[in-house]
């Protein structure tokens, strides 16, 4: 079995994506997603019961809200959200808050692209944003 190397210049790829959420790669155990949160926007408070999440911030400024704690985040920061932990990330600056995140196991449909938070929320509510099962 031949497997091609997946390679991303991640900060550049993330900066060039205007989409709220874009799944770049989905593996059996993890998933790589880039996100762009507009000014005055947020990911939305959520809990992933069985999924760990690691978020790395590429540009912009925001506030991480994890397990009741709040902390400013800027480019170069990384935040870990263990499974079962309530969290939200809010853009507190005038420019987009750009990040990439790794989910383990995958959280979203392979190759999913959601241009806005509203589009992402609608896809989730309709059951159209489910991770691969195999």
Can you tell me about this structure?
There is one protein chain. This protein has 134 residues and is mainly β. It has a single domain, classed as Jelly Rolls (Sandwich). 12% of the residues lie in helices and 39% in strands. The chain contains two helices and nine strands. It has helices spanning 10-16, 117-125, and strands spanning 21-26, 31-37, 52-59, 61-66, 69-74, 78-81, 87-91, 97-104, 113-114. The protein has a six-stranded antiparallel beta sheet. A three-stranded antiparallel beta sheet has the order 5-4-7, with no helix packed on it. A hairpin with a 4-residue loop joins β1 (21-26) and β2. The mean pLDDT is 94.
Strand order of the largest sheet: 6-3-8-2-1-9
Task: Look at the structure and give the mean pLDDT.
Answer: 94
How many separate structural domains? 1
* Tally of strands: 9
Question: Can you describe this structure in just a few lines?
Answer:
It is built from 2 helices and 9 strands, in the order αβββββββββα. With 134 residues, it is mostly beta strands.
Blueprint of the fold:
Blueprint: H1 10-16, E1 21-26, E2 31-37, E3 52-59, E4 61-66, E5 69-74, E6 78-81, E7 87-91, E8 97-104, E9 113-114, H2 117-125
Antiparallel strand pairs: 1-2, 1-9, 2-8, 3-6, 3-8, 4-5, 4-7
